[in-house]
Amino acid sequence: MEARHQTRDRATRRRPRFRTGQIRWVVERAFAWLHQFKRLRTRYERRADLHQGLLELACSLICLRRLRTSF
After folding, report:
1. How far is 15 from 6, CA to CA, in rounded Å?
2. What is the pTM of this model?
3. SS3 annotation, the chain
4. What is the pLDDT of residue 50?
């Protein structure tokens, strides 16, 4: 009787839900937006600072387009 009581308690406990699916979707969507920029698809730049600059430019263009369509 003791073992039956323990299994029932274990079954009624709720596990914490992790929302990894939603976070993954946001990240993959951002990568898809960045994939529009041909120069960022394959890293042509040898210097990391130039690649970082192009990446920031692409992100700012994406944000500008999103803001333009929202207003």
Report:
1. 16
2. 0.58
3. CHHHHHHHHHHHCCCCCCCHHHHHHHHHHHHHHHCCCHHHHCCCCCCHHHHHHHHHHHHHHHHHHHHHHHC
4. 87
d(CA 50, CA 46): 8
pLDDT at 67: 92
Q: Which two tokens stand for residue 42?
A: 């394959």
The Cα–Cα gap between 53 and 51 comes to: 5
Burial 5-20 (b: 16+ CB within 10 A, else e): eeeeeeeeeeeeeeee
Burial (CB count <10 Å: 0-12, 13-18, 19+), residue 45: middle
Question: How many residues are present in the chain?
Answer: 71
Q: Rounded distance, CA 58 to CA 41, Å?
A: 12
More confident residue, 71 or 69: 69
